Task: structure prediction
Amino acid sequence: MRDRSPVGPGRRRFLTTLVAVAGTTSIAGCSTLWDQTGATDVVVYNLRTEPIVVSVTITPTDAEESHTARELEIAPGAKVDPVNRSKLPTNSSYSITVEVDGGPRETFDWDDPDVELAPLYILIDETQNITFLLQAG
Result:
């Protein structure tokens, strides 16, 4: 005959404890998701009939170092996402400077990046203007 006396916590108690710990851990992990505001894209379009070289610098307004600083060669009709790691966190305001080689230079202050209004489109056409557009929410 086998001895069926429990040696440690019963199986039911062990499983109940395991589920409680897993539930608490998952809730604690999810609470950090509510603090994150998301990420967005910045897209540069070359609407010209010739290739262009464009410098794009994106700097958080509360930082001294830029988040992104790139020089891009963009083919006619092409679009490029200049942001390093392809996403720009929406938890900061940004100063975005775009300069076309031999052409215009413009700066856009993006005070409240919002996923609802994203992405930020930067259009470069035949005029001496650089246009910054956000989609309507």
Observations:
- Residues 1-7, 23-36 have pLDDT under 50 and may be disordered.
- The two ends are 74 Å apart (CA to CA).
- Strands lie at 39-40, 42-46, 52-60, 68-74, 79-80, 88-89, 94-100, 105-110, 120-124, 130-134.
- The first helix runs from residue 11 to 31.
